[in-house]
Amino acid sequence: MRAHIDPAPDLPQSAIRTRFHRFISPPWFYRFAARWSGRLGWSALLLFAAGACGGLVLAPPDYQMGDSYRILYVHAPAAWMSMFVYAVMAAAAASGLIWHLKLGEAVARACAPLGAAFTLCALVTGSLWGRPTWGAYWVWDARLTSELVLLFLFVGCMALSEALDDRRSASRAAAVLAVAGVVNLPIIHFSVEWWNTLHQGASVARFGRPSVDTRMLIPLLIMFAAFNLYFLAALLNRVSCELLDRERRTQWVAEVARG
Fold first, then answer.
1. What are the strands, taking DSSP E only, across the chain?
2. Binning pLDDT at 50, 70 and 90, where does residue 199 land?
3. Which domains does the chain have, with CATH numbers?
4. 8 A C-beta contact, residue 104 and residue 23
5. In this structure, how many other beta carbons lie within 10 angstroms of the beta carbon of residue 183?
């Protein structure tokens, strides 16, 4: 008597695969982005207002740095986002490089200018904070130098994306650089532990209780959330524009244009 094979266990896996392919399809992602980008943008704006009020008005001065530490409410989230955006860009670039996903290429291309902006913001605000703290706007500190390298990587990916007339070839060239540059992320993160640097170690993302006063910590966490939501909103908008440009000769873009 032959054993009966129940196909039911394959159904959930098939459903997951179907949903995944639908999610990475340009028409579905465009509709998803149109639905959520505005909501994320407004949420980010509200959190920015709450975080700025808490950090600039309600939080007490630091016992060592006084009020100069308040620039960290912008610097710390920007520095975190610079690494996070690069990780997202590299993962998306790898998916485009390995599986030739159009959405992956579009996400990687959209991430590069956003990541460059976050990195530049982190470097500028860090310099402004370093002047009263270290007595200099810039020192060749391990973390500062590796963060500067990160900016060059973002700019390099943007340059390669525009260097070739063939967009797919340009995306592949930028993807190779993005994936290779991932090695810089652990250098940035662990630089304060591997080398003797002026940059302070982790005070929020640490095991146990953070060494930050709660009145200072809560606005900082709000600013972290605001930066993340802003990135998602901006990314959805940029990817939508990128997909419309790439797919401009397709039927679904014509339907979007007709409204």
1. none
2. low
3. 22-258 (1.20.120)
4. no
5. 8
